Amino acid sequence: MVAPCNSMGEPFSRSFKGLIVWCFLLSLTPCSLAAATSNKTRSHHFYKWEVEYMYWSPDGLENVVMSINGKFPGPTIRARAGDTVHVHLTNKLHTEGVVIHWHGIRQKGTPWADGTASISQCAINPGESFDYRFTVDRAGTYFYHGHYGMQRSAGLYGSLIVDVAEGEKEPFHYDGEFDLLLSDWWHKSAHHQEVGLSSRPMRWIGEPQTLLVNGRGQYGCSLAARYTNNSSLSQCNVTGHEQWAPHILHVDPNKTYRIRLSSTTALASLNLAIGNHKMLVVEADGNYLQPFETDDLDIYSGESYSVLLKTSQDPSQNYWISFGVRGRKPQTPQALTILNYKTNSASKFPLSPPPVTPRWDDYAHSKAFTNKVKALDHKTIPKPPSTYNRRIILLNTQNKMNGYTKWSINNVSLSLPATPYLGSIRFGLQNGFDQTKPPESFPEQYDVMKPPGNPNTTTGNGVYMLSYYSTVDVILQNANALAENVSEIHPWHLHGHDFWVLGYGEGKFTKADERKFNMKNPPYRNSAVIFPYGWTALRFVADNPGVWAFHCHIEPHLHMGMGVVLAEGVQRLPKIPKEALSCGLTGKKFMTGNNLG
């Protein structure tokens, strides 16, 4: 049964046996999801969305943002595990295509709904529509974002929350909930950035001006100016400025709140801290963790977490919530908001300054946090296979090609084809992409601690063809960039799967490093970071027929070629909707009447 929409494209969801009553979040005051459905029923949530540009002031300075139905960020999707989500998306942009990726949703049986241009589908042309239909098979904290050009930088993103199925319970208790979507914001447009990255020589627009929390930030002033001796920094006056006033978290004393965190940043790695409060980390990327307590939390682009917060501090005070930049020398101020105990006014300032973000290059701090992230148990998280069928080692390097700056994997910079891989592979169109097998590793003599001796690279769009249901190890190997003594953080995201993060290490990976693997309780995730000059070991099972992107989630890096493409079991798929393949070689075949069934 398809639920009707209101005029804004928001769903009035109706299950097979009852009505789901939705609570809406006002000023981030928590609400709960009430359901009048019987046990194990499944709902169909229908949304009608239009994507277009509009004027907005995310940080107090008016700019152009990408919006969905006039909203920035886009509307939050909320469903239960097992439900079907149907988004009818119309491109109201006048001069560019669009797709939306449902980050963390594995798209089992619906790879054409993954929302990756040139991989799983054609870009949706101006004035055209596309129907995304997929099942959200697992509870967790997710989000969605544009996956065409640099539309994530332009503001095309929103939250996607999946609650547990009817009759099931989370392995932890909480009294209320908040959803915080984190992003970064430039005053120059995504088009400026894209042209600069593609120029010879590269022209970098610099670090983002502002960090946004649920699409809101403050530029040119600070909510905490009164705590500094900087006379040039003014105190923000956000009264009456709804678009960029901070979202305040209103809480009751002596309660437990779940804070869902998702990072859709295009560049920045972030650190979260809450004044005078500790957090209990319980979920990452839709999978439960062994709970652990922390004073602050690092979150990289593409990651999501849930933390539990106990409101056990002095209820006559308010407390700062701060987000600061990690992994890059920060030129972007902290994002700030307030944890407001409702026993006093939300306008009351905290007694102390905001928490100080750990130094940007304190990687020991970051690694200590990362190594605490472990799977809850094998009842909720599958146990990793004890061995692998294939190992692929992916060297991450910065390179040059004819004067252009590129990011490469095993000295190949990804350049996507005109025909989506899903169609080319399914229908044997060998001219659709490079049939040369991409390299499985890199030369043994390569020194990852120094700039490349030969900085030149090549472009390609070959595919790693994986045997269906095989176990695959991927070793992500970091290295020195073009400049001496520079190695950047790279958060990698795998579409269509979760993987076990078996371990992290320093320097070049060797066979002996397998002794360091955590085979007992490795976290099960869809995103993982490689630290500077280090390696990260992943293992996954190729059990989801389709063609899948695997890439650095820093948007400029992906734009400059930092990604690979994996394929498995494509011939096992049912009929692919022709709307997904109406461009390139598959589009020509449809036009000539050839059956691609």
Biggest sheet strand line-up: 13-12-15-20-17-18
Q: List the total number of helices.
A: 5
Largest sheet: 6 strands, mixed
Runs with pLDDT <50, length 5+? 1-39
Silhouette: globular
Topology:
Layout: E1 14-15, E2 20-21, E3 34-35, E4 43-56, E5 63-68, E6 77-80, E7 84-91, E8 100-103, E9 129-135, E10 140-146, E11 157-163, E12 176-185, H1 190-197, E13 210-213, E14 249-251, E15 256-263, E16 269-274, E17 279-284, E18 287-294, E19 296-299, E20 304-310, E21 318-326, E22 335-341, H2 363-370, E23 390-401, E24 404-409, E25 412-414, H3 421-426, E26 458-460, E27 464-466, E28 471-477, E29 490-494, E30 499-506, E31 524-525, E32 527-530, E33 534-541, E34 546-552, H4 555-559, E35 563-568, H5 584-591
Parallel strand pairs: 4-7, 6-11, 12-15, 14-22, 23-28, 25-26, 27-35
Antiparallel strand pairs: 1-4, 2-3, 4-5, 7-9, 8-10, 10-11, 12-13, 15-20, 16-19, 16-21, 17-18, 17-20, 21-22, 23-24, 28-33, 29-32, 29-34, 30-31, 30-33, 34-35
Family: Belongs to the multicopper oxidase family.
Catalytic activity: 4 L-ascorbate + O2 = 4 monodehydro-L-ascorbate radical + 2 H2O
InterPro entries: Cu-oxidase-like_N, Cu-oxidase_2nd, Cu-oxidase_C, Cu-oxidase_fam, Cu_oxidase_CS, Cu_oxidase_Cu_BS, CuRO_1_AAO, CuRO_3_AAO
